[in-house]
Amino acid sequence: MVFISHHLDEIKRIGDVVTVLRDGKYIDTVKADTPEKELVRLMVGRNIDNQYPHTGYPQGEVLLKVDGLTRQGAIDDVSFELHAGEVVGLAGLVIAGRLHSAQPQAAQGYEMDAIAAVVIGGASLSGGKGKVSGTFVGAILLALIRNGLNILNVSSFWQQVVIGLVIALAVSIDTLRRKQDTH
């Protein structure tokens, strides 16, 4: 039986031997109980002594600051700052968790969903202000639409068309609303 995986715990549980290929070339065949550090060395071609080194990047500008947020019976005195780049990092962690791997292109194509969530949530594409709560509601509605289309086996092409139509509808509603506000 051949089992291909990058989950080393699965390999040790299922297999007796491990054959390592790198860049399409045979590297070595070892016992499945080979220490993980050695398997990783065979896979990447070098020792990985510090897998997650601290790089010391400076923090970006503060985009959101919350001080002493309290809601009786729910939360008490919550304070935090959200810096530029942190949302992208958090999104990267979420997508890595969903895909069980991390690749720079993993979230490619989600730009439309991000714009749709903000627009559905009430922010104007022609300028103005939106609210985080509105964007959250927009993201939930978008997820419901996307999941419903998946359940109905709608192709990804037509899903993008539907999301585009939802954005167009949201922009039209915003345009009508702004016209009524000026009259």
How would you portray this structure in words?
The protein has 183 residues and is α+β, with helices and mostly antiparallel strands. It has helices spanning 8-14, 36-44, 86-99, 111-120, 132-151, 156-182; strands at 17-22, 25-31, 62-71, 75-83. Helix 4 (111-120) crosses helix 5 (132-151) and helix 4 (111-120) packs parallel to helix 6.
Task: Write a compact overview of the structure shown.
The protein has helices at 8-14, 36-44, 86-99, 111-120, 132-151, 156-182, and strands at residues 17-22, 25-31, 62-71, 75-83. With 183 residues, the chain is an alpha+beta fold. The strands form two sheets. The chain has a two-stranded antiparallel ribbon with strand order 1-2. A two-stranded antiparallel sheet has the order 3-4.
How is the secondary structure organized here?
Elements: H1 8-14, E1 17-22, E2 25-31, H2 36-44, E3 62-71, E4 75-83, H3 86-99, H4 111-120, H5 132-151, H6 156-182
Antiparallel strand pairs: 1-2, 3-4
Helix pairs in contact: 4-5, 4-6
What's the order of the H and E elements? HEEHEEHHHH
The structure class reads alpha+beta
**SS field, number of helical segments:** 6
The main sheet orders its strands as 1-2
β-sheet strand percentage: 15-25%
Residue runs with pLDDT of under 50 for 5 or more positions: none
DSSP E strands, number: 4
| Main sheet overview | 2 strands, antiparallel
Which outline best applies? elongated
Share in helix: 40-55%
The Cα radius of gyration reads 24 Å
Distance between the termini: 73 Å
Average predicted local confidence, pLDDT: 81
